[in-house]
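Here is one chain, start to finish.
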Amino acid sequence: MPLSPHVPELGALELLLAVARLGSVGRAAAELGVSQPTASARIKGMERQIGVPLLDRSPRGSRPTEAGRLVVEWARQVVEAAQALDAGIDALRERRDAKLRVVASLTVAEYLMPGWLLGLSEASPGTAVTLRTANSADVAGHVLAGEADLGFIEGPSAPPGLACTVVAADRLVLVVAPGHPWARRRAPLTGAELAAVPLVLREPGSGTREVLETALRPYGGAARPRMELASSTALKAAAMTGAGPVCLSELVVREELATRRLVEVPLAQELDLRRPLRAVWPAGQRPGGPARELLGLTRRSAERSPGRRGANGVGKG
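Its structure:
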């Protein structure tokens, strides 16, 4: 027997459950990777379809009406059944084709991905993984174009059209060669001072550069770069040869700082160069199969990492 036209689609039910759990249409929209106006319109459309108001809205948020609470309970059963079906289909697909296409920013690919892929290999030895590297802007483009199952980016936010979750914390540091005058500096460098100095920078579109430019925007933006290089390895080499100050992930320069081949320049507290590292996938979809397994590994690794909460101050994007 066909379903009544009053039965909402599965995505609308998921949205209603998220609003009931989070107490806010805006927070539910952010979690599901859609805009707040889209989410609000979807809820109103569902109310018209069912024929009863589902939410009480107020400046403090949204909560289900009496009828809404009933629909939420029914919706939960439907969504749980759909998730079980989804998991079963994934299991069938995994048997047929255990392939995973990953594209990651250079920092993630070089310093975090090897450990994650080793864990995936141990958990699922039959999974064939293809890893590409690109800057964060290009990673987003590959994922949106369907050329990768999962992407990993740096930067303060995820691009439009992508859902995301934070998988690691990172911090940018300003480094110079031991012979640079700033290597002996004791007073923290202010935002205005840093903005006035030509730096050796990553190319436009890089997550590292985006974080730095965002931090320097209140001071008139970063000065015209002394030079632009397309990899962290090249930036590190430039800094060690005395080409100028370089802003890099602390993951990238940990060994050089420990051996004093590079020196970290102290920065004023006003300069917040912390950043989350995110996994991204197309909004409205759920990572399945090997992508879901890799995502689980990254989350468990982040939970074990000391200081994650204090280092980035953010949760799910």
